[in-house]
Every structure is written in C-alpha cells, then in structure tokens.
Design a protein that fits this description.
The protein has 118 residues and is mainly beta. It has one domain. The chain is 0% helix and 81% strand.
C-alpha cells in the first residue's frame, strides 16, 4: 500500500535457525536443534519530507512454542537517487518455551547503514 507520504508492506519470511544449548562444569552436555520458523514481515515508512522518512521494519511472530522478533526503528535519508543512509535502533528477541527447553535472549543496539541501488 502506498499513499503520498506513507508506505506499508506486509510479507512472509522463512527463517531457518540453528540453536544450541550447552552446559559445562564437571562434564559437558549439549542439545542442538535446527528448525524452520515462519515469520510475518512488515515495513512502514512515513516520509516526513522527500528526503527523510521514519521507518519501522521487521520480522516477528509468536506461537505457543516460542517467539521471534527482529525489528528496527530508523530515520532514513535519501542522499541522492539510489543512495539512502539510515540510523536507528534494532531489537532482536526470541526463544522457546516447551516441554524440553525454556530459553530466551534479547539483543538490542544502535546501528547505521548505507544502501546503494545499482
């Protein structure tokens, strides 16, 4: 969906993840698991001016077995045609809660990037 100042996108991400949990002490134990995680993908861009936009984009989904989120909120600047710069905050969170394992992690940071379209 695209309006004069607002772009909305919705999609699907097929994430393949490999997880490992290990314990070390008097002995060593490890449990590994590779699996498919379906996620909803989204992007909302609100153009403040022709050169600047506030962008919220990510992939996320929750289920009884666990959840996954990878979401960025950023200010994006069009430097020239085909060249965009962005600075923003990203949060990656997720884990599993089932009969075999309970584990979640959270990582967040400020990032910057440059996109060049050829």
């Amino acid at each position: 969906m695209s309006r004069d100042r607002l772009d909305l996108d919705l999609g699907f991400t097929a994430k393949i993840r490999e997880a490992a949990i290990s314990l070390q002490g008097d002995g060593y134990a490890e449990r590994t698991d590779t699996g498919f995680v379906p996620l909803l993908s989204f992007r909302v861009a609100w153009r403040l001016t022709p050169a600047f936009a506030l962008v919220l984009d990510g992939d996320a989904l929750a289920a009884p077995q666990g959840r996954a989120e990878d979401v960025t909120a950023a200010l994006e600047a069009t430097l020239r045609e085909g060249v965009r710069a962005r600075v923003g905050y990203r949060i990656v969170e997720g884990g599993a809660d089932n009969d075999e394992v309970y584990t979640f992690s959270l990582v967040h940071h400020v990032g910057a990037g440059l996109t060049v379209s050829l």
